[in-house]
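Batch job 17 of 40 flagged for manual review because the log was empty.
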Amino acid sequence: MDFAKLPAGPLTLQNLTVADCLVGGSGDLTRMDLHLREGKITDQPGQVVDMKGAMVFPAFIDMHTHLDKGHIWPRAGNPDGSFAGALATVGADRQANWSAKDLRTRMDFALRCAYAHGTRAIRTHLDSIPPQDDISWDVFKEMRAQWKGRIDLQAACLLGCDQVSRDGPFVHTADLVAQAGGVLGMVAYPVADIKDRVRAFFELAAARGLEADFHVDETLDPTSETLRVVAQTVLDMGFDAPVTVGHLCSLSTQDAGRAADTMDLVARAGLNVVSLPMCNLYLQDRRHGTPRSRGITLVHEMKARGINLCFASDNTRDPFYAYGDLDMIEVMREATRIGHLDHSGHDWAHAFLTNPAAACGFEAPGLVPGAPADLVICRARSWTELFARPQADRIVLRAGVQIDRTLPDYAELDHLMRTS
């Protein structure tokens, strides 16, 4: 068989390798056959193709991205690789260039990359500082409709906690989010009245029936503990919609006892956690010399507490992360290396598939009869083969049909890069 090309028609993909946890087992890897017919996984055999041990995954879910920032690096590179440099550069570029046309073009480019790599669902954060909120949410609704049936899209608003209040411009932003069926979001960091601002945020979310998604403690400063505020407020208010918290970098620098107590609080509050290891590795501990910290949050300890732990891409070719391509196999590979997921259990695949689906309410991935035949198949036959190479020749099936995986050319964006 030519690995790069599957025959058409009902198929039986024989001799596939799969993470045992994805088919209800407790082991590492197992072999299985999949029958594909009329866009779904079935129990009816078709034309037999020997896959020779190729690894298969359900199409991926990328639950924390920034499609609105994506691919601005050529015109707005981070001057020093720091978090402060990223904030300043993105802010200036947003004010100068983020028209509806600019957003639409870059977001579509990024989605074509994600689709080619095998992603079927994405949650993106949208910078929503007025007047950008009116522009970006209209574009998002267009893109969601345009991409329906290929990538399921969700969006969460994004702005600093110091701009959240019960009666200011954030009320209009919350209304835009509700009208678009989105998720209410903000960046939580230490300010004098953080407890009241988090409570106001949840009051606005509850009044509109919205889920919540926070950027939290994206710093290595151990005194940054807004995660505790978010978790305690959820418990105090009885806020019962799903809440996601991302980054949580400061946990990695805190006293072990304090960090453990905070994670216990997160578990009691039922928060979903998403780790963004590539972006955090890039930005955190940026200094004049060699970095000492990876910036990743305490993923092993949270998983051990039963917290719904996920991984995602985060930024792509913008000042917060100069690299990346919305490729969840890359995220899986780098998360494994950065976070030492190897030698620590056999069920980490859930953190890239099942767990983000549960956190965001996307359709659960599956490899059982009746599930969509949305698959990513790699020539690799084992974890070490999978992570040793980028799997550039992977096969992506959507509704049982092999898609064209040609990636868009960066030159398509050149005209946007000349506007600044």
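Reviewer: the log was empty due to a logging misconfiguration, but the result itself is present. The first helix runs from residue 83 to 97. Unflagging and moving on to job 18.
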